User: Fold this.
Amino acid sequence: MTKNGIDVSEWQGDIDWSRVRTDFAILRAGYGREVSQKDKKFERNYSGAKANNIPCGAYWYSYAVSEDEARKEASACIEIIKGKQFEYPIYFDVEEQKIFDLGRDKVSKIIEAFCHELEKAGYFAGLYMSAYPLTKYTTEHVKRRYAVWVANYDVSKPDYSGPYGIWQKSSSGIVDGIAGNVDVDVCYTDYPTVIKNLGDNGFPKHTAPAHTKKTMKVTVEYDDHTYSGLLEEQ
Assistant:
């Protein structure tokens, strides 16, 4: 299964979502530690995507250089996205060199701190990074623990050997309804099904008596890799 998508922020201006043709969209919710740092177009983009039946996820751009700062960023992110439904993960966007300068173990702890807060609040957490820092500055546990969205341009496939669900392949896409260039992505994972089955990201959790619960096999495809696991009905 392959889906083609885009990711957007206030830098794309006022998007005419009625003209956009895409399988999914990842929206910037905001950045930093304060609710006041919400992306100026987030509400408009969320409403526009939903009104036009475009499944969406969200991302939060990080400046955190400690676990405590990461938790504060998570709190701001959760405040902004609460009450909404997302078919795709909520991603922690790590790009700042000052974060990478802390080293792999510290970077990984910062990622875990943010994602743990998201999961506690009922969200399906993911990590966005470029291929090189993702390889160099995260532990194997982090690479496999969270949904990975990897950025790598001008290549036929990402220069990254770990599992990933979405590949951001270019920043120069042209999409009707959006003025100027936009990031374009390819998704290999059926996140909407997984997230809805889990009851994450604002979707209702399905409960049933213990004796009627079923266990289903979920297969997640990551480019050349396929990972399977068991998911119990909630």
